[in-house]
Amino acid sequence: MASKLLVVDVHTHLYLPRYASLLRERTTLPKIITRTRDDGRKDERLVILKDEPSGGRPIGPSYVERDEKLTFMKKHGIDISIVSTANPWLDFLQPKEAHQLSLQLNDDLEEYCSTGPTVTGTSMKQLYGFGLLPIVSGISTESLLEAVRQISASSHLKGLIMGTRGVGKGLDDEALDPIWAAISEAGLAVFLHPHYGISKESWGAKNNGHVLPLALGFPMETTIATTRLILSGVFDRFPSLRLLLAHSGGALPQLSSRLASCIDHDPIVASRLKHDARFYLGKLYLDAVCYGPEELGFVSDVIARSNRYETGSKNVASGGRSSGSGRMLFGTDHPFFPPLSSSERWKSVVENLDAIENVQGWTEADKNGVKGGNAISLFNL
Length: 381
Ligand code: 5CU
Known about the structure:
The protein is α/β, with parallel strands linked by helices. It has 14 helices and eleven strands. The protein has one domain (2-13, 65-378): Metal-dependent hydrolases (TIM Barrel).
């Protein structure tokens, strides 16, 4: 019962020291650069996205130091964090280096979590992690499977974080079938997270900083990658695959009926799928990083209605908003989007917790589930 009251952050990032050192050594993107300010002090900046305004964003200890993560958690009442390496993971490396580094970083992350503190009064740790696969172009299936086995054997790693490129052709590439099979069999969750956004030509010539790529490009990338997974039949072939989508699944919930209609009008695609596209949304898990109660309520409804779209189900009623909440999980996106002063509480935490609190039709138990109970069940903490 106590577990229902714990707050668990499933969307919280880090760069492990080994990874940060690699970024510091690099001269091409992604990289960490050091600038000397007017007052002579040195200042590190992280450049991970193409065409970043003002030479990247400040990067401080919050990206790397475990104590900073724990201080942030304490300040905001977060009991447990499932931490993951932030984008762009190993995407920019050659297969050999990606393979070696994935194994090292997974070991580093296991140690980061296992040697951390315990939640008072429980046997649960405060830190768990999502590991990394060396999922880059040219990698062998065996190297990917080796990383899946390693993560599975690491008791504090509860899944893995993955971008959308796959081994070069996206996640709907059949070459990944043995990986989906191994991940499903191991009972690991996959946290699907964007990095590339969509083509910068879409953003026009005005300087809008990071707003368009982050607010729209990131979620659209997740929307497209997940839709391609649905269309490829991955969820029919691997029905126990547990996929957690960043940023509440982007635009997919809003577009899911349109998607179903387009599939209906395309017999070749329709004949590939066992169910109406809307059914598959009920197989997903979505973080609750969308900052507004109305958006969370809507996403919850879309998950709740999914059972109506299972082939063969006749006149099944929607499960109701409450039932959709069971697949939604609180997150912060820390250490991205920091406040301007160090004494402030982070808006990304305050707004996402307030949003959960204010969803119409969610009971106290639903809200506690989204804040932490669902994560405790999903990751078997
Ligand atoms: O601010 C950003 O660029 C990001 C990012 O790159 N990754 C992420 O998870 N959140 C924000």
